[in-house]
Amino acid sequence: MGLRRKLLVSIGLILAILLVLLYLATSVILMSSFSNLEEQLVLQDVNRALRVLETEVLELNRLLRDWAAWDETYAFIETGHPSYVAQNLDDAVFANLRLNLMIFVRYPDQILYSKAFDPQGNRPAEIPRGLYAYLTPESALFNLPHPDSSVAGILPLPEGPLLVAAQPVLTSRYQGPVHGALIFGRFLSAAELARLSQMIHLNIDVRAYDDPSLPSDFQEVRSSLTREKPLVVQTPGANSVAGYALIADLLGRPALITRVVATRDIYYAGQAAQNYIFLSLLAIGLVFGEATLILMDRLVISRLSNLSTSVTRIRTSGDLTERMAESGKDE
User: Which of 161, 223, 234 is nearest to 196 (CA)?
Assistant: First the structure.
């Protein structure tokens, strides 16, 4: 193998090894950074979804305050007069407030009046049977003896997740004594989730924590979600990334898992950047290698070739007085 070829192979191997090492280093650093950025943005989206759910609960609680601290409601709890129902609890009220149920409680243990409504179907409905387990005198929804008592949160009913709020019934001046309580409920239905998703421009899905028919990706993350680690990010598919969050019920028990799905635009942007970097390194390596070969050829190989030619000529001629031609001022 000639000197030029040996030099070409050596430089090529060195450049190839350097390119591979640089590519691996940039791949680890770059893709790790893009993956971390993707995870952070997904977690931000999950927190946005949690905040909008919390806002819905707070809004329901504020709406309830207007009805619970009202002289007419206070009088209704005391007297049970049907005129209150006729004047204030028609279907249009439920539709306008997007409420699924109202329950009026008279202490110590009487459900004075209850009504359920389906705002999507615009028709009366039944009080969900799963709610009755929470309507006992000892329950948090029922037992509100003080004027400043209040509970609000989410209940994972068999009929679906229910946003619920309960407050003691007071006069319009927020005074007692407390003779009962008022409960509002709003199902977190598909229509409600679609409305919330549109509000924050995210794809929100909510499932019951103990649902035996959970989708496979929910089942995979369920064991990873705890009070200490309520947020998890997974990649259920090559083109999507999802964030999951654990939501507790009124009693602090695991109740729901919410999921936000996003496309992997950031990750694929990182892959594109990685490919651009590799092509740039390859181009730079080829230019550097070509320049190195040209310089080596002019500064070293060509002179060694001339030296070899001169030595051969002198040996062939046998004239030891002949001198080799010199070029340049270096060695």
Answer: 161
Omega into 108 within 30° of 0, i.e. cis? yes
DSSP H stretches of helix in the chain: 3-68, 71-79, 82-88, 91-97, 190-200, 216-222, 265-296, 302-317
pLDDT tens track for 239-256? 778 899 999 998 889 999
Topology of the domain covering 59-192: Beta-Lactamase (3.30.450)
Q: What pLDDT is recorded for position 298?
A: 66
Tell me the CATH class for 38-53+202-265.
Answer: alpha beta
Give, in order, the Cα–Cα distances in Å from 180 to each of 56, 81, 90, 154, 210. Answer: 24, 15, 21, 21, 33
Helix (H) or strand (E) holding 118: strand 110-118
The predicted-structure confidence for 21-56, as pLDDT tens digits, reads as follows 777 777 777 667 767 778 888 889 999 999 999 999
**Boundaries of CATH 3.30.450.20 in the chain?**
59-192
pLDDT at position 57: 94
Nearest to 152, CA basis, from 64, 67, 255, 230: 64
In sequence order, what E strands does 179-253 have?
Answer: 180-187, 203-208, 231-237, 240-248
Helices 3-68 and 190-200 cross at an angle (nearest 10°) of: 120
Distance from C-alpha of 178 to C-alpha of 169, rounded to nearest angstrom:
6
Regions in the chain scoring below 50 on pLDDT: none
Do 247 and 257 form a contact (C-beta atoms < 8 A)?
yes
